[in-house]
Design goal:
three-stranded mixed β-sheet, 4 helices, alpha+beta, 3 strands, single chain, globular
Length: 98
């Protein structure tokens, strides 16, 4: 992901422990199966969310197909401009609460 998308933000959250009790996870060889990713990259510019997600899925193809590999993947994909707008909105909302 880092090499291909050159992200300005790459946050990886391993949520596997929250799902270890699920029946589907009992016989898996890996205990790291559920992840949330936030990726900010200019490679996403002018692409809709489905296309962005397909880009990430293609990069993680082997991990997604591997027995005991990634079982669930939640993605937040945005451009730098989208991230800046989001941060501006959040800071304005925070200022309104004060």
């Amino acid at each position: 992901i880092s090499k291909t998308l050159n992200p300005t933000t790459l946050l990886i959250h391993n949520d596997s422990a929250l799902h270890s009790h699920h029946a589907a996870m009992r016989d898996t060889v890996s205990q790291e199966t559920h992840f949330r990713l936030t990726i900010t990259s200019e490679a996403f510019k002018s692409k809709m969310q489905p296309a962005r997600h397909r880009m990430v899925y293609a990069l993680l193809k082997d991990e997604l197909e591997m027995q005991g590999g990634i079982h669930a993947l939640q993605l937040k994909t945005r451009t730098l401009e989208e991230e800046e707008r989001l941060q501006e909105k959040e800071s304005m909302e925070g200022a309104e609460k004060v």
